[in-house]
Amino acid sequence: MLTLHNPVRREPEPLALSTLNPNLVAAEYAVRGAIAIKSATYQQQLKEGKELPFDKVYQCNIGNPQILGQKSMTFFRQVLSLCEYPALLDHPASKEIYPPDVIERARLYLSSIPGGVGAYSESKGAVILRQHVAHGIERRDGHPCDIDNLWLTDGASPAVHYMMKALLRNENDCILCPIPQYPLYSATIKLYGGTLLPYFLEESQGWQATLKHLQEQVDAARSQGKQVRALVVINPGNPTGQVLDRQNQETLIRFCAKEKLILMADEVYQTNIYAAGKSFFSFKKVLMEMGPELASSVALVSMNSISKGFFGECGRRGGYFEAVNFPQPVKDQLYKLASISLCPNLSGQICMALIMNPPQPGDPSFELFASEREAILESLKRRAKLLVDTFRGMEGVQCNEVEGSMYAFPRLTMPAGARDEAAKEGKQPDFLYCMELLDQTGIVTVPGSGFGQEPGTYHVRTTILPPEADMAKVATKFSEFHKAFMQRYEQNGARQNGSA
Amino acid sequence: MLTLHNPVRREPEPLALSTLNPNLVAAEYAVRGAIAIKSATYQQQLKEGKELPFDKVYQCNIGNPQILGQKSMTFFRQVLSLCEYPALLDHPASKEIYPPDVIERARLYLSSIPGGVGAYSESKGAVILRQHVAHGIERRDGHPCDIDNLWLTDGASPAVHYMMKALLRNENDCILCPIPQYPLYSATIKLYGGTLLPYFLEESQGWQATLKHLQEQVDAARSQGKQVRALVVINPGNPTGQVLDRQNQETLIRFCAKEKLILMADEVYQTNIYAAGKSFFSFKKVLMEMGPELASSVALVSMNSISKGFFGECGRRGGYFEAVNFPQPVKDQLYKLASISLCPNLSGQICMALIMNPPQPGDPSFELFASEREAILESLKRRAKLLVDTFRGMEGVQCNEVEGSMYAFPRLTMPAGARDEAAKEGKQPDFLYCMELLDQTGIVTVPGSGFGQEPGTYHVRTTILPPEADMAKVATKFSEFHKAFMQRYEQNGARQNGSA
Fold first, then answer.
1. How many CA atoms lie within 13 A of A444 on its CB side?
2. pLDDT digits over B188-202, tens only?
């Protein structure tokens, strides 16, 4: 295919895996990987009336509550519908349809955001909405929040992209990430050409981080000439479901201060707390209450999202990050990065502001809001317990309590036969398990290998989100599958060992 | 600040410009740069009642029509409001508020998108919405569109980010970009570590590209061992406002075929055509009609956005790209990249589908839709003409016709005094011009240096978007400023020359 009149070097294949950026090709994102893709095919086949071993696909692979039937919060959607179509405000029926605080909030936002939802806003988000988010943070923490430190974003993902882009210069730059971790971290670290420095969460201690291990990892990396730039903490945990003790948070902050690490706190599950005696404390709050020296020096990025919590507004993509103790020139760079994509979507911005400033007692919408919130959180709590009980009742399965977030992450004892079969197929054993689970039951999960796990251990992540009406069925199908899987591969393993 | 017990190498300043990714620090994005930031300060000051030399800020720096008072399209917003708050569909007043085709469309989308706007969709966009976009593309081009080749996106920016991330491996990889260009290209090429290979548009030939120059640039780059990966074309032009002739498009396609370049066609202004005798042809259509060999081999990315056109729905961030003749493994990588951010926002996806499938003659909403569209496009046409006439009436200014898009890009003869003053301040002369224009008149523009221009030439980009009621005032203020600027710096220059 070379042309003769232009004899200089040129890629033989301009558009092929071999000539793409190798970091892109190497990046992995299991949450939407092969199992999720196959589940979409099954869903299509069911729709077309094809006979399958199951009559429904249960999407337990992703924290996406509304796809499983969770209702949206009425107050949020009412305000958003008026912002979409402001002419409704002048319609005589509007007062029948909308409570007065909904109309008032919509009028406030529409009069304060130039051009409404149809115009680009400031790249960090519309001022009024950042103010409302800041008020919510202040109410939550009892400490001031400067809107200059706030970036509204399309979900929490952009915060992670921005930080990785800013901090990673080459593969010598490391980010300390919990293992298991949400693969947004491993994927973006790879995409932007850095190195993930793992620290293992202690499953036997309820998935807490231990200082000794963190220190060893940092010291080992530095002795190899690596730069350790930041520490990622996910609290409440994903995929692990733990809620950190405040003391543990203080330990992590002191470690960041001592080692001059930027603390990246993924706090998107901050309203998803189920365990008795557990509370969410933001890293901002904890930091601010550790004395003026630390409070004014540790660089912290606190991330939040509208996709999680009890509201689960995944589809509109909203979020924010607060950058604490960031020097102005660095903030200017993050502003520039945001400005290159102009601005986050306005509906997502508005929804984030509503979440951080929901109706208060006495407001016309408060009672409905509170009852909707209560119903969802209580139901999530029941579902979490049902799932954990289910896993604890299975042979060879251990499962920590789901203290918070939206996931159970049980540990499986994998029969030798399954490990052999997986090895033969070039897969991880827990991938084999999850794929067979999908093929036989329609339940979509993510193998622990997609999040990272201690070598030789095997896990499955499942959300706690199927509706309560389905949950018992999911639990039964899962248990039956597990029993059959174990039997089959224990026999296979035994047979192979016998014939070896 | 070094601690003694940990004597290994460590960044002295973990969070400072000196330790950030240098590609981020080097990237520039003038559209939201210093002039735009200062204009926001002025706006705030006016709001607080401060006396300034002007009583209003005219944001002509960015294609953001609704911030300047352009009304949104009723049909789009009606459907979107129902999708936000589906309970409205069951309200007895809904039939008074909404025409039947609006209700029908909302019902179709809500019943076809699992979880509605509150759930993550497929990472490439909800199937029904991709189908509607595909139908729109087919209607536009007269050629089939496979939804497997479509990615819905948050505005057009993600398409550019994805392509740059995928194609650029190191600074040896080059992307051919028009100069002047929209700085999303220069910024992302820098961010992802590649090299911008410029090709100059011929101002004297209505900003067309010339084959001879393109060939010289590619040959020169290759002779230095560079890899030329892709050719960016912006049609209609930004900041230059030209509409490419079909013949010119064919030439560019043949050039990409011969040089094995990926054609990145930025077609976000496809409905913004004002010049008599000019029409928009998508590169997809032109390619498909150049014979089966080319049609099946040239890799093309065609990008569109909901932010431009006559609708200008900037704030909700919607867009799509169609990847034509991309090998499946490469499409898989682009899918993965999209999946790492889960999905584009649903309101933006829906708006994109509505734009590509608007009401048709006979539909209840058609008449209103058509009259709103006509009014906006006719007004834009009048404003484009008024601005061009204004610039042509200024001393030392040349201005090509605004054939399409949303911008005039007049060329200024810069007095020596202004060039000296700018040099003294370490600025570009057109930056000085635009900053003084803002300081004295409140008109916000972007200097030509933010887009790139032939050395020794100076330009200003201004949108054609101020409302017609303001347009005469903007034109007068601009003319008066220009006259005073020229006089001042011609005198300064003369005085300095005299005293030298």
1. 26
2. 999 999 999 999 999
